[in-house]
Amino acid sequence: MTPPPYTASRRHFLALSAATALAAAGCSAPENTAASAKPSRSGGTRLTKIGLDYPFTQLPLYSTLVKLSTAQAQRHGISLLTTSDNASADTQATNLNTWVARKVPAIVSFPMVFEAAEPIAKAALDAGLIWVTYGGSLEHQSADIRFSFREGGTLLGAAAAKWAQEHLGGKGKIAFLTDSTIELGRERTKGMIDAFTKAAPGVDVVAREQAIDPDTGLSKTKAILAKHPDLNLVLGVTDAAAYGGFKALQ
Description:
Elements: H1 10-25, E1 49-53, H2 61-75, E2 79-82, H3 89-101, E3 106-109, H4 114-126, E4 130-134, E5 143-145, H5 149-168, E6 172-178, H6 183-199, E7 203-210, H7 214-227, E8 233-236, H8 239-249
Parallel strand pairs: 1-2, 1-3, 3-4, 4-5, 6-7, 6-8
């Protein structure tokens, strides 16, 4: 018997999931796509469906992520399922549990709360499904897609500090739009702030506000400007938050 043209081998699936996630997110190559990879029980089964769980549906990135991921999946004759988590950890858990119960054969998930995702991932593996963790690593998973979160923030902070030195003479005021909700955000935030404050110590930090989407970035920056109308810089941990800050400055 001739084997099917597309089987759910871990290597082939990882290549597909990494390509769709990276292309949609506009990211560089992942630091590690299989740090703790484990064999999947569905190795010889034709893969026809993939679930993509990206919880931050309020971000402008989301529509692009779904569009590019759908196109990439279609190239391989695979249908793509998506969740609508609305940045709610409880909703995400419900949606993922539903997928496991329905035996969606392969799941790529960006967990909002990694501790909460752990038992769901274990249930997926126990059911013979493939589970790929996006943006971190779980104990129970087929593989993961990770990035250099701290390094990315460090590069951002260093670039902003260089601009401040060149255009402000190393003096002024800066506000940071940060993220403390998930490990990715915390790592990127720390790298960003540490790098900037080290390279531009003469720039005063007047605010550190949680914001990852345009609307929050806009409202938080407006509030900061009300207290500090002479604000020189807004540095956002996400491009979406930074765009909101930019609109406020305009």
